[in-house]
Amino acid sequence: MANSSTATRRNRSKGRRHPLATVALIVIGLVSTGGAYALFTGTANAETQQASTASKQSSIEEGKKLFASNCATCHGLSAQGVTGVGPSLYGVGAAAVSFQVGTGRMPLANQGPQAEQKPVQFTAEQTTALADYISSLAPGPGIPSSKYTSGKGDASTGAELFRINCAMCHNVAGAGGALTEGKFAPALTGVTGEHIYEAMVTGPQNMPVFNDKNITPAQKADIISYLKYLDKNPSPGGFELGNLGPVAEGLFIWIFGLGAVVGVTIWIAAKAS
């Protein structure tokens, strides 16, 4: 009986799993699952990146064709510029293209003191293609993020920054103003936040460049918020006279206000006589 009991225990011990067997199975399962997931996601990411690269390259090729047929006359076939006609576009970045083409200033209609805004000649997709092509030639300012152009910054801080950096040309209310030699600072009413930001980082026409060391992206967002505030809020003082400032207002009072007083005086004198 003793021998039979001992044999039974030995058989049971032989059929029992080792305590670490379960742990080993779990580790093997996790490694297998993780490896399969990594392989799948890695392949998916590679395919997505490859598709994105192909799409970008296609856009660049399309932009190159558009440039050759619309812009090369002034800027050269390789965007190297043409002396006395058009500057080199190397390093201007996608932001400059988006601003100049997106506002209709380019292609230039005729030579003058500065390029004036006119109806846009290209679709949004074509503008993007041109921007992709120019940015592929040399690094430059890119298209700004929507978080800086949405007009959700601090308008009061933006108003102070605008008065310090921009009002001397664009007027404190963004109404624009005359410069020298037939040039002018355009009005900023109704301009998109993206184009305002792009103008600050590229310095079109006579405008200086405000890089991130001069005015940070967050401060640019505040300036845009101030201008958007002006778009949404009419003058609280009544008729704004084009926001041209105290000279225009004084001239209005001098001509119409004083003229009315003189007219009423003459009318009273005529009645009295």
From TrEMBL:
Chief location category: membrane
Keyword Lyase: no
Protein name (Swiss-Prot/TrEMBL): Cytochrome bc1 complex cytochrome c subunit
Species classification: Bacteria, Bacillati, Actinomycetota, Actinomycetes, Micrococcales
Xref: SUPFAM superfamilies: Cytochrome c
Keywords: Cell membrane, Electron transport, Heme, Iron, Membrane, Metal-binding, Repeat, Respiratory chain, Translocase, Transmembrane, Transmembrane helix, Transport
UniProt cross-references to InterPro entries, sorted A to Z: bc1_cytC-su, Cyt_c-like_dom, Cyt_c-like_dom_sf, Cytochrome_c_Oxidase_Subunit
Pfam family, one: Cytochrom_C
Species name: Lacisediminihabitans changchengi
